[in-house]
Every structure is written in C-alpha cells, then in structure tokens.
C-alpha cells in the first residue's frame, strides 16, 4: 500500500507510515480531525479511548461473529454453494466471513452434504493442493484456529499442515454455545453448524451476543425476511448471498455496537470524512414581524396571538378542527401583514 500511495498520490495530501504497536501508539497521541480503524474489538476500544482525549471522531470497522440463518424454505444447494464461497475467500480471513450457521432441522443433513460437494467442486478432492485456497497468515493464528477444532465434531475437513499453516475447509457440529469457537470471531476456514426448529430461539440467542457486522439469511419466505429485518440488529443484512454487499459502492458498509461505528463506501466514505456544517442565512429586513419574539411579552396582543397559535391547532383531520386552525392561521397572517404595513400600530414595530 505504501508503495502505491507514494507512487500515485500527492505526498503533501497523503502520507503513509509503516510500523507496529509503538508507531500506532505514537500516532494516537496526536490530535487528528478523524481516525479510521479496521481491526479487532479490543484494539478498537484502545483507538476510541485515545481519540476521546481530543474528542476526535472515529470510524471503527471491527468485525465480530457474523451469523447465517438457513431457512427450510430456500434453495439449499445454492445456499450451500454461496456460504462455502463466502467462508473460504482468503481461507475465512475476512471480517465479513460467515462465522456460524443456524440451519433449520429439516435441511441440516442436506446442507452438510451439499457443502461437502461444493468444497470438492471449488477446491478439488484435496484443497491443500488447490491454487485457489489460501493459508493462515501466521503461526499464532494457525495454532489458535487448530485448537478451535476441538470444540465440536468434525464432519467435513479437519486437516492441517503445521509447516505451511494450512487448515482445510472444516465444518463442525455438536458445538456447545459456551465453547471458545462460539465466543470469539473465528477468522479462519472453520464453520460451526447448529440446528433449530423455532426461529424465535435463534432471535433469542442473537440477543445474548454482541451485534454482528453482517447477518446472512437464506430464505424464500418474505414474512421471515421481513421479521429478520426488524428483529436482528446488525451492520448489514444480506439476503440469499454472502459478501456481495461489499461490491455495491452505493450501499453503506459498517457495523453497530461492538462490530463498529460509522459507515463508508462510495459517497458514504466522503460523508464520513466530512463535517456537515449547518448554515442559516436570513435577510436583515422584516424586523417588524420578528418583534413578536422580543420581550416584553405581557402585551395583550402578543398573548392573544400566542394563545391562538398554541391552542387552536386541529387534533384530528376533521373539518371542524381544520376550520379552527385555518381561521386562527389567517388571523395571525393578517396581524403580521398589518404590522408589516403599519409598523407603528397596535404595539408592532413601535419606535
């Protein structure tokens, strides 16, 4: 990134610095107009705390555990293909990768069978030999992910290579909700699947967890889609696909709660880095009309006018209520017009 920034962008406007924790810590001590951070929740809290010292606004894109709901009313083969693709992009090392699945009990066996077939279709009989399947970024994350496979029953995959940091696409079942794999963002090619019969139990579980960056839903049931829209709080809702919301520049992207603050992409990015300043520019004339707002307020004409405007508005769209409002509004307008024409009369405008 630094190479191309320095090559194509004006260094007076765009600067890049490379470094680790010490560099980031030093930068956070400076007073910025805006801080944009993408990473983990724990580091996001550090960034937000440092920004608060100078009341600097922040955009935080933090990820989290992105759930998938697979309804009984869906094309299960297409759902399986799209979920596997979304999970295996960069070996699951994306903040929007599907993190776990709640599948309707009726579709559970079929989903697992079709996911296994699509892994083979995409990456061959041995995904380790595929040029299209990535490796885990470093040894630390590899060891962390390898240990997570002990938190359930491996029904697909489960193969590893300590020398190359390879972990095959892996599906887990019988995963306890309090296990490590269900607590933290996985960020790798491991995907737990749980079954449900009543969708309300899924909503109840979601409410016990932090709000995700994305929620994925596969369903042809319009009523369920609408219910998920209303009941599941997430940065984005993808219906019948995975990851593709990132391809739409006009669709703002960002989290909510622990999954992030602020939204960007396309014009939303420009808005995120802009201060929307409100401006009121009034003409200097017609001061006699403005005299209503100035003290003293004990003049009878002011009290009568204020009373009429405050208490004679229609409470319901009835002809009687509208008539009262129309009469008092007309009277108020006439009073203002009279004052404007004769600024010295009836207490308006005076000297």
Can you characterise this structure?
Helices cover 37% and strands 14% of the residues. The protein contains twelve helices and twelve strands. It has helices spanning 2-8, 21-28, 41-53, 76-88, 108-123, 139-148, 199-207, 222-231, 267-272, 287-290, 300-311, 319-341, and strands at residues 35-38, 58-61, 66-70, 98-104, 153-156, 160-161, 166-167, 170-173, 190-196, 214-218, 236-239, 260-261. The strands form three sheets. A seven-stranded mixed sheet has the order 5-8-9-4-3-10-11, with helices on both faces. Helix 4 packs across helix 5. The chain starts with a helix and ends in a 10-residue tail after the last helix. 26% of the residues are buried.
């Amino acid at each position: 990134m630094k190479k191309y920034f320095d090559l194509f962008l004006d260094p007076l406007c765009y600067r890049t610095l490379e470094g680790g924790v010490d560099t980031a810590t030093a930068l956070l001590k400076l007073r910025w107009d805006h801080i944009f951070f993408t990473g983990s929740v724990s580091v996001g809290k550090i960034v937000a705390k440092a920004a608060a010292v100078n009341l600097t606004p922040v955009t935080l894109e933090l990820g989290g555990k992105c759930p998938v709901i697979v309804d009984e009313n869906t094309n299960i083969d297409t759902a399986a293909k799209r979920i596997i693709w979304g999970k295996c992009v960069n070996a699951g090392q994306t903040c929007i990768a599907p993190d776990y699945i709640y599948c309707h009990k009726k579709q559970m066996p079929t989903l697992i069978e079709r996911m296994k077939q699509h892994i083979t279709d995409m990456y061959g009989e041995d995904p380790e030999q595929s040029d299209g399947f990535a490796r885990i970024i470093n040894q630390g994350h590899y060891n962390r992910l390898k240990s997570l496979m002990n938190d359930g029953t491996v029904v697909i995959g489960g193969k590893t290579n300590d020398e190359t940091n390879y972990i095959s696409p892996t599906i887990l079942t019988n995963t306890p909700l309090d296990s490590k794999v269900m607590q933290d963002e996985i960020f790798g090619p491991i995907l737990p699947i749980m079954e449900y019969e009543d969708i309300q139990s899924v909503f109840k579980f979601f409410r016990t967890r932090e709000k995700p960056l994305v929620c994925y839903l596969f369903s042809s049931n319009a009523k369920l889609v609408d219910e998920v829209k209303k009941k599941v709080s997430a940065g984005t809702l993808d219906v019948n696909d995975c990851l593709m919301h990132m391809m739409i520049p006009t669709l703002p992207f960002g989290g909510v709660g622990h999954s992030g603050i602020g939204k960007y992409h396309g014009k939303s990015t420009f808005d995120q880095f802009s201060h929307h300043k409100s401006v009121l520019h009034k003409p200097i004339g017609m001061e006699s009309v403005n005299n209503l707002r100035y003290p003293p307020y004990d003049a009878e004409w002011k009290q009568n006018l204020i009373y009429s405007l405050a208490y004679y508005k229609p409470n319901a769209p009835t002809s009687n209520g509208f008539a009262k409002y129309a009469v008092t509004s007309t009277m108020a307008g006439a009073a203002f017009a009279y004052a404007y024409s004769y600024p010295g009369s009836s207490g308006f405008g005076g000297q």
